[in-house]
């Protein structure tokens, strides 16, 4: 098989594929990689993969970068890490790193094959159906207020009738007004989409997220304890904080959120549940922002 045919085949597979040389400079970037990360081939060719433009493995040292380790010991490895998407959110990926050798068996680079492991397929399909019923926020693709109301009705029935607990978490983008004031509403909309994507990527399969209004988001989590609800809130907070939005001139803008959550009580009105979550969100704002607080 000649090189051109091989490249054409690699270019049409759904997984992301890229090669690096011994200095970890990217020498090939297929269409699957473009689709999953949002970064084009032109943007990535020649990039140092250790610069953290894409890979979010916690550093660039040999003990934290799969490629560096593979090129050091020559052993293929599989790992689950996060990649940065060009739009600012993080993508959970399954990664296979393999050394590339020349005709003498010397390691001359490495190849990585990765796939998106977001557990959001079922939710995305459901949201597509709900779009026809006007239950989706058009900017972020998340549910809207009506979507929350429909889900809450079912959750309260399950709580009151079968004792299945659930909780809500309210998130608010910190200092969002300054993002709009300093960078304009187009960047503000980009920030809303990036936060929405980060929230969705952080949730369990049964959780749902909605844009509650403005820069506020609401997560509805069934079958949880206060401890688990707190873990979800922290995972969302940390995922949003790790994301970046690329601005004109290559400047990267970081975002944070504050979150307040509460477990539902039998027989209570949704407004009371939301009020308790909102009080904790307010406490996080007053306490310095970029934090979460969840309780009964």
Binned strand content: 25-35%
Poorly predicted regions: 58-63
* Number of DSSP-assigned strands: 13
Highest CATH level, the class of the largest domain: Alpha Beta
Shape: elongated
Number of domains: 2
CATH H-level name of the largest domain... which superfamily? Reverse transcriptase/Diguanylate cyclase domain
Strand order of the largest sheet: 2-1-6-5-4-3
The portion of residues assigned to helices is 25-40%
Largest sheet: 6 strands, antiparallel
Would you identify the CATH architecture of the largest domain? Answer: 2-Layer Sandwich
Number of helices: 10
Average pLDDT reading: 86
Based on CA atoms alone, the radius of gyration comes out at 22 Å
Q: What structural class should be given to the helix and strand makeup?
A: alpha+beta
Order of helices and strands: HEEHHEHEEEHHEHHEEHEEEHE
Question: How far apart are the first and last residues' alpha carbons, in Å?
Answer: 63 Å
Here the CATH topology of the largest domain equals Alpha-Beta Plaits
